[in-house]
Structures are given as C-alpha cells and as structure tokens.
Design a protein that fits this description.
single chain, mainly alpha, three-stranded antiparallel sheet, 23 helices, 9% strand, extended, PORR_domain
C-alpha cells in the first residue's frame, strides 16, 4: 500500500516537473496513468478557485478589510408614485375630466370669435394645439363627440364648419347662472382661504388658476372682491387682503370628528386631531403600519384657521417636521373641501405653498397619506382627489355645479350612441324654423310683405347654382 502511494506521488511530481511539462509540450508519447494524474491536478486547482469564490473573502485574504455596501431600495416620491395602489375608478374619472377640460378650452376659443360661435374645420385643426388637443386631429375629435360638436356647411362660403350643440351650450349657461347665484358662498370661500394664510394675504393669480375648481365666476375680482370692500382690500393689483373681523372659522373636518366622538363613543384623545381614512381596494398593510397610523392620528398640530403669527416658531419647537407636515395635510384637506368637485390639479395647488405656509414637497406629502388623498396621473397633469368625498367615481354629497358638469361629462361619454335622436332634433328644429318663417311672411290679408334685404336672396341663389 505504501509503495503504491509513493509511486503515485512520484508520477504526479513527474507530471508537474519541468521535464514532464517539456514532454507534454513536445507531443512525446505519455503513459495513460500520467495523463490521469495531470487531469487530477487540474481538477484540484479548479476546486481551489471555486472554494475561494464562495468563501467569506471572495477577493482573497488581502481584501478582507475592504467594506462592502449593499444598496438599499430607494424610497422617494417617484418610487411611491410608481408602486402606489391604483384606484381604477378615480383614474378613469381623471381621464374623462381631462377630456372635458380640453373641450371647454376649445369652447372658450370659439366663443371669443366676433363673427359668431362657429369655426371652420381647417381652422379648428390649428386651434386645437392651443387648447391642448395634441393626440387627435380635428376630424377625429368631431366624429368622437357628436353630442358636443355639430358640423354644418357655411351658407355663403360653402366650407365645412363646426359649432357646439345647443344642449351643450345650455349646460354651460346653466353652470354660469349657478356660479352667479352663489355669490355669498363664494365670499365665504375666499374669506376662508385668506384666513388660512400666514399674513391674511393671497395672490389673486393663485385664486384665478383655481377659479373653476372653487366655483368662482370669471370676473370674480370685480363681482366679489371689489364689490365687498368691507371684507376685502386690494393691497396691490395682484394681492388681496382680508380685513380683520370678529368671525372665526372652523375646519370642515371638525364636524366629522364630533360625529365620531358622539356616535362611536371614541375618546377625545383619539378623535381631536384625527382625519377620515379610507384606503383603496387592494392596499397592502405592512407590519407596523397600523401602529404608525394610530400615532399619527393622535399627533396634535396647529389647525388651519388658528392664528398664524407664530406658526413656524411653534411648529419648530413643539414637534418638528411631523407636526408641520400634519398642518400642511390639514390645509390641503380644507382646500379640497372648498372646491366644488373635491379635486384639483397638483400644480395649481403648489401656487398656494408660500401664501399658506406649506413649504413642503406637495406631491410627496400627498403620496405619504394614501388613505386621505389619491393622486391620479392620467394624462399630462396630476390630479389629487379627496378620498372621503368619493364613493366609486361619484361624489357622496353632490351640489348644483357638480350636477351641471356631470351632465356635460355624460354628454361627452355618449360618444356615437343615440345619434339618431340628434338627427330627429335637428329636423324638428328646422321644421319649426320653416313654420316661423312662413308665419312671418304671410300676413292676415295673405300678402307677402317685403323686407329690407330680400333683393339679395335671388342674387345669391343664382350665384351658387
């Protein structure tokens, strides 16, 4: 046994010696046992390399002192936006709302024409870009919404023109009448916004951007602010100030807190600074989330309508960033409640940051609280919804302005359905117009009175034959 082992060692040494390597390179005949020993030596070398790669020191013992850092997963506003739980109904509503805004932008351009509320189809294709319609051509837009747009041939120029249907225009007029009748409510809205500001002043530009969301008329500066000079004072052309008064406001969320305290028999400690929470379907609650949410609900903060002379001092000294962010949540919550549809554009909300003292990243703050707000990213703009105000894609407590705008949206969503009803309505309207003309032409004696300009009719008829 010993002699055989020694012989094998000698054979391995021979295979690894300089003479053995020389014979291998020269191609001289080698014994099979020698080849087997060389193969065994190669396998041992490969095993050593594999063991070194799986050891505690993969780079060798000399690299053991080098620190290896493992990259943690990023937790930013962008990652939270991408990984958030989606609400399909609110996303669909945001997409429809964006289309309605595009149609209203086109209406503002067409209604501003001096010759009449119509425009040629060729000109509409150029105007559509100014209204933000960059995904559809003018023809596709007109064919997609036949209950909103009406195509006709110009009686003189004989080119294709379009206007808005009478039903859509009636809804727009109804909305304007409702906004004008809400003067007292609009005064209270502007007073509340000014009461939430740091120094009682707000830039009118920020209110103008949110005019439609707040339900203000187009000329709100003259019809509301300057008209009620006993309440508001124009400090500058673009700055309005609230005149000091004895009336103090309370946030709308206080009513919910009182109901929770009375009906559910919760303690004041649980409800005094709490907000209504409703998570979307499919929201995953990780370990420790409920405890953090309970502590945040109990956290005290400076409420929106409390005096704001020492907001920064109190926030910085009494609780730090969490109390400051909770105050910002309370202000945004109150702003959304003041809107008619309980939603607004995030970019327009950012214009109030300096005046209301919410110097935080608004989008990141909204994403931190998915039970209070929902951020929809359909289209170019991001729209924030107040979750407690919606059930599915409808408001829980509807109002007159929301009802008129909802009818406009439903008129758009009809698409190409029920178009035969449109044809019947047009035929009835033309027949009624023809009857009115006949009654006007024939007087009691059966004679046809001549009117100024009748001599032009046969000339135009011969010209267009």
């Amino acid at each position: 046994m010993v002699d055989i082992h020694v012989g094998n060692e000698k054979k391995e040494n021979w295979a690894t010696s300089s003479d053995g390597r020389r014979r291998l390179l020269s191609g001289a005949p080698i014994n099979s046992s020698l080849c087997r020993s060389a193969r065994i030596h190669g396998m041992r070398f490969l095993n050593k390399i594999a063991a070194a790669s799986h050891s505690l020191f993969p780079g060798g013992p000399f690299t053991a002192s080098i620190q290896i850092r493992f990259k943690k997963p990023a937790n930013t506003a962008q990652t939270r936006l991408e990984t958030r739980t989606l609400d399909q109904k609110l996303d669909r509503l945001a997409s429809h709302h964006r289309r309605l805004l595009l149609v209203l932008g086109l209406y503002d351009l067409v209604a501003a024409k001096k010759r009449g509320p119509y425009v040629s189809v060729n000109l509409l294709s150029r105007w559509a870009l100014h209204a933000g319609v960059d995904t559809l051509t003018a023809g596709e837009l007109l064919r997609k919404y036949p209950h909103v747009f009406k195509v006709f041939t110009h009686p003189v120029r004989r080119n294709a023109c379009c206007t808005f249907t009478s039903k859509f225009v009636e809804l727009l007029k109804l909305e304007d009448e409702i906004l004008i009748s809400m003067e007292d409510a609009n005064v209270i809205k502007i007073r509340k916004i000014l009461a939430m500001s740091e120094n009682g002043r707000i830039h009118i530009h920020a209110i103008r951007l949110m005019r439609r969301e707040l339900g203000l008329p187009e000329n709100f500066r003259d019809s509301i602010i300057r008209k009620h000079s006993e309440v508001f004072r124009m400090v500058d052309l673009e700055v309005v100030e609230l005149i000091e008064g004895a009336v103090s406001f309370t946030a709308e969320v206080e009513g919910w807190r009182e109901r929770e305290y009375r009906e559910k028999w919760l303690s004041e400690f649980e409800t005094k600074y709490a907000f209504p929470i409703s998570f979307p379907t499919g929201f995953k609650i990780v370990a420790g989330f409920k405890e953090k949410l309970k502590n945040w609900q109990r956290l005290s903060y400076l409420k929106p309508y409390e005096r704001t002379e020492s907001v920064r001092v109190r926030v910085r000294t009494c609780g730090g960033v969490e109390r400051y962010e909770k105050r910002a949540v309370g202000i945004i919550h109150e702003l959304l409640i003041l809107t008619e549809e309980k939603m607004m554009d995030v970019e327009r909300l950012a214009h109030f940051r300096k005046d209301l003292g919410i110097m935080v990243n608004v989008r990141e703050l909204l994403l931190k609280h998915p039970g209070i707000f929902y951020l929809a990213t359909k289209g170019k703009n991001q729209i924030v919804f107040l979750r407690e105000a919606y059930k599915g894609d409808c408001l829980v407590e509807a109002n007159a302005v929301y009802g008129a705008r909802r009818q406009m949206l439903e008129l758009m969503l009809l698409g190409c359905r029920n178009t035969t009803k449109l044809k019947d309505e047009d035929e009835e309207r033309e027949a009624q117009q023809h009857e009115d003309d006949e009654v006007f032409r024939h007087n009691q004696n059966g004679r046809t009175p001549s009117r100024d300009g009748d001599f032009v009719i046969p000339i135009l008829q011969n010209y267009f034959k």
